[in-house]
Amino acid sequence: MERVNAVGRRKAAIARVFFSEGTGEITINKRALEVYFPSSILQFIVKQPLSLLEAEGKYNIKVNLNGGGFKGQAEALRLAIARALIKINPEDKPALRAAGFVTRDPRVVERKKPGRPKARKRFQFSKR
Questions:
Q1: Can you list the domains of the chain with their CATH numbers?
Q2: Max CA-CA distance within the chain?
């Protein structure tokens, strides 16, 4: 297998993954997964597509992650891993889609409007 790469996005986070044959190491920005995401919940989110296809320990994954917060980065990485797994084996797509790992979540922060304190909030109305 040659190197397979894919991109995943969520909110402001962008994850670029590079798959190669290996022992199952996940390296994010030159740090181990456990160091980058100390939270076990976020580690679980990242590994979901791999555990669904029982592909843990088959690939070494190198990741470039930037933008967003912890949760957005973890979900962007999950999408990128799912997309790379589909590139490797297209027959896995229905299983990943059924689990909801292929859908790009389009929700992003709404921009602030002029003359308002936030995107939709208004200043307090005063009658007098």
A1: 4-99 (3.30.230.10)
A2: 73
